[in-house]
Amino acid sequence: MNFALTEDQELLRDTATQLLADRCPPSLLRAHTEDIAAADDLWDQIRDFVPLGIGPLVDLCVFTEALGRVAAPVPFFAVACLYAPLLNAVGEDDLDAVLDGDATGTVALAGADGVWHPNAETRKTFVPDALAVDLVAAISADGSITLLASPPAQRIETVDTTRCLYDVETAVPGTAAGVISRSALDDVIARATVALAAEMVGTARRLFDMTLAYAKERVQFNVPIGSFQAVQHKLADMSLDVERAWSAVYYAAMAMDLGDDDRFRAVHVAKAAAGEAAKRNAKDGIQIHGGIGFTMEHDLHLFLRRAFGAEALLGTTNWHHDRLADLLI
């Protein structure tokens, strides 16, 4: 079996990487911290990629990995990885407008415990980009979906300033949009989890590349610090974690695309491996950078924030390890 990317997927990767490198420099992330509207032009540039959300998961992961590399502060995850697949699962007519770039939305599902499972609570937590989209799709305990326009929302202060999360009050009038079965919802959340894991791989790889470059440039005792064995060992472990996570993510994406019986186990492995890579590269990256890595003036913290924020969304590394234990024991 050939696990290599196809020519079309390589073209997608190269196109996305170049576009985002040009349009999403660290200065944009800093501007977005002060004004979330600063990224509106970038969002306009990548709306055309939203249909990836209902296509092959491998293609979607190729794109979200590129987004994670630059920590793009746009609602792509909310719209393409959550909202569009949800509408697609229930055959909602509004999906066409989303795919055409004329409408946007997000999904409200998690309750007070933060777990993305159906529940009867009316106050949903950790809703991505609730104030940046047109509609919020609230999912109740029985799987019924209600589309809400501008529901009351309060931003949650998190370490990650590039992805805005909100508490949303869903006990307000809205439009019914069908009922999704538990199995169909599980597939939507599983796909979103793998796409998020791919994004984390991109962020972890960016942290590694920044750290490797710094280790080559920073001189201590008249030699680059990258020549020190202790630093080399850390860099080697960082690189291995990224490559292991990349393999786990794309295996999970392929398993989901094929409907393989192993797909849900693979999803948990992918998110856990991506979480480990993100955390290691964040922690070791800041240690190798030394004092400068702790400063707001250095760009490293922008990607540290994205790494830790994504690790907590849709289940932490430890949570996915527990789910793996449930499946295996």
Would you kindly provide a written description of the structure presented here, covering whatever features stand out?
The chain has 329 residues and is α+β, with helices and mostly antiparallel strands. The chain has a domain at 183-328: Butyryl-CoA Dehydrogenase, subunit A, domain 3 (Up-down Bundle), CATH 1.20.140.10. The protein has eleven helices and nine strands. A hairpin with a 4-residue loop joins β3 and β4 (144-149). α7 (182-217) packs parallel to α9 (263-289). The longest helix has 36 residues, at 182-217.
Chain oligomer state = single chain
**Residue fraction in strands:** 5-15%
Q: What is the arithmetic mean of pLDDT? A: 94
Overall shape: it is globular
**DSSP E strands, number:** 9
CATH class of one domain: Mainly Alpha
Low-confidence spans: pLDDT under 50, at least 5 residues?
none
How many helical elements? Answer: 11
Radius of gyration: 20 Å
Order of helices and strands: HHHHHHEEEEEEEHEEHHHH
Please give the largest β-sheet.
4 strands, mixed
Helical fraction equals 55-70%
- According to CATH, the fold-level topology of one domain is Butyryl-CoA Dehydrogenase, subunit A, domain 3
Quote the distance from N terminus to C terminus. Answer: 30 Å
Give the strand order, joined by hyphens, for the main sheet. 1-3-4-7
